[in-house]
Amino acid sequence: MQRLVDEGGGGRSLQKEAYPFLGTQESPNPKEMQHQLEGFLDKETPTFVKELWNLLLSAQAHPTGIPKLFLDQKKDELRQTRVTESVR
């Protein structure tokens, strides 16, 4: 997903396209979202929607509401920072 954001010109445009399906519906429909995003993401749309949906499910299951993948990435980033700082 990060690659799509990086290559797609940034997250702002992607947020603008995806938000109506997530922020305004009580029960978003991934198939409808995929159909609407195809013009924006082209062949990457199925991969993006699948990854996004898995992140949403993970966030829903976690007490903090943050996907486990994001928490793990942040932990790794903090560990790397500590290692880098201890080498200095």
Explain what you see.
By secondary structure, this protein is mainly alpha-helical. α2 (11-22) packs antiparallel against α3 and α3 crosses α4. The mean pLDDT is 80. It is 76% helix and 0% strand. The protein has helices at residues 2-7, 11-22, 30-41, 45-61, 68-87. It has one domain: PWI domain.
TL;DR of this structure?
The chain is mainly α and 88 residues long.
Helices, strands, pairings?
Blueprint: H1 2-7, H2 11-22, H3 30-41, H4 45-61, H5 68-87
Report the average pLDDT across residues: 80
Q: What percentage of residues falls in helices of 4 or more residues?
A: over 70%
Q: What is the total tally of β strands?
A: 0
Major β-sheet, in short? none
Shape: elongated
* Computed Rg: 16 Å
Secondary structure category:
mainly alpha
Query: CATH class, please?
Result: Mainly Alpha
Instruction: Please identify, by name, the CATH architecture.
Output: Up-down Bundle
Order of helices and strands: HHHHH
Number of domains: 1
Q: Any low-confidence stretches, pLDDT <50, length ≥5?
A: none
Total of helices? 5
CATH fold label? PWI domain
- Tell me what portion of residues adopts beta-strand conformation: under 5%
